[in-house]
Amino acid sequence: MQGVGFAWAIAPGLDRLYPDPRARSERLLAHLAPFNSNPYLATIGIGFALRLEQEVARGSAGADHRLSRLIKALRSSLGALGDDLFWAAWRPTLGVIGAAVALATGSPIAALVYWIAYNALAQSVRWRGVRAGFASGAGIARVLQDPFWSRASGIMKTAGAAASGAVVGGALWAASGGGLEGISVFLFITTFLWLAGLRRGSRGRWLSPSVAFLVVVILLSVVVQVSAEVLP
């Protein structure tokens, strides 16, 4: 998976720790094993690995085996946390908001804002991840148990649900020509999807934003179909 990239990223640190080319090559080969993780949180593993490589370079007994074992256990945790934060929360939330702004304004600036906002978090996590992983060392569990990960994901999923409701409700409002009925539909759908995301982000999987969005679309399709058959 990301083994080659992981080894390439860790190579500058190994250059400092192992002046002997043969020893450096052996340690570099040890990091070419598969490393399937989220690309943004993988830097935590890089910092952690460099911290333990210091122990290996100092000749600590069993440090190399401990490093190999902990890296294997770490990659799945980094993958789960990163996928939930970026793939399931941050990217879709920004995508919905960016699409809504682009449709409402007709301006390509929305795409630029999306790109800047996404990378503001992504690259910050990458940069700080190396420092956090190196500083924690064997205490890496404290970094993974930080409430920031769950809180950030919950907030972003809730915001994404609200944004989805705003998009659907706004489209119906515009299609109906505005008025009190359009405002009512807009507020209902926005609130419905927001509550779905809030519930999912806080205490469980009662109704995910994507499922709620699908339910609303199906109900609206039925209403439109029935109205077309009843009205002259």
Computed CA radius of gyration, to the nearest angstrom: 24 Å
Instruction: Please give the alpha-carbon distance between the first and last residues.
Output: 60 Å
The shape, in one word, is elongated
Number of strands: 0
Total of domains: 2
User: Main β-sheet: number of strands, strand sense, barrel status?
Assistant: none
- Continuous helix count: 9
Description:
The protein is mostly helical. It folds into two domains: 1-92 and 106-146, no CATH class; 147-232. The chain is built from nine helices and no strands. The protein has helices at residues 3-17, 21-30, 42-57, 63-105, 109-136, 140-144, 148-175, 179-202, 209-230. α1 packs antiparallel against α2 and α1 runs parallel beside α3.
Keywords:
232 residues, mainly alpha, 9 helices, elongated
Briefly characterize the structure.
It is built from 9 helices and no strands. It is mainly alpha-helical.
Secondary-structure map with pairings?
Blueprint lengths: L2 H15 L3 H10 L11 H16 L5 H43 L3 H28 L3 H5 L3 H28 L3 H24 L6 H22 L2
